[in-house]
Amino acid sequence: MTEENRFIDRYRTGNTPWAHQHPDFNLVETIKNKNVRPCKAFEPGCGLGVEAIWLSRQGFEVTAMDVSELALEKARELAGSISAQLNWAVMDIFKDTLPKEEYGFVFDRGFFHTFDTLEERQLVARKIASSMHEHGLWLSLMGNKDGVPVRTGPPLLTATDIVLAVDPFFEIISLEVSVFGNEEVNPHKIWRCLMKRR
Ligand SMILES: C[S@@+](CC[C@H](N)C(=O)[O-])C[C@H]1O[C@@H](n2cnc3c(N)ncnc32)[C@H](O)[C@@H]1O
Known about the structure:
Layout: H1 3-13, H2 25-33, E1 40-44, H3 50-57, E2 61-66, H4 69-79, E3 87-90, E4 103-109, H5 118-130, E5 132-143, H6 159-166, E6 170-179, E7 189-197
Parallel strand pairs: 1-2, 1-4, 2-3, 4-5
Antiparallel strand pairs: 5-7, 6-7
Helix pairs in contact: 5-6
Bound molecules: S-adenosylmethionine (SAM).
């Protein structure tokens, strides 16, 4: 089974430990503290769409995509009437084409870290970069290798893994240690990486 089909299957069987109810504080803080103004925004691997919905409520014009059609169906339900203002797209980042220089802000939570090899991560970073305006911002939340490894936990990256993949396309504005914003008592340690498209 491909990695993409594995994710599709996990939504079918309800094996989605990353699901959470409230917008991740790492996104909320970044938008406020870095004064990111509403613009066209893109969320790859949006899952159940909690952050895409929040961004839309802040005035961003959001395209939220995921390889799982079921995840997006649930996201649409969760969004209720605001769903009409969001563009939900069933896409595979490797197979489908992204628009050129469309977005001013990209957010991903646990999407970029799912790719196992440097080649895959570089390909994804290049694709995301080409969909963004020059100097557009990308905030990525990724499992941190210095955290406690848990069998069912997120993939864990080192700072080197991140820098090698994104540096050709993005200037790193900040790379900080944080935790996932969710309802868990001991959330996983993550990297909160804010980047500017070169
Ligand atoms: C760890 S989950 C995170 C979901 C959501 N961002 C959250 O934090 O709740 C990773 C998401 O990426 C999606 N995904 C994985 N590979 C993908 C691909 N090649 N193209 C598009 N989406 C993909 C999965 O379906 C899944 O929803």
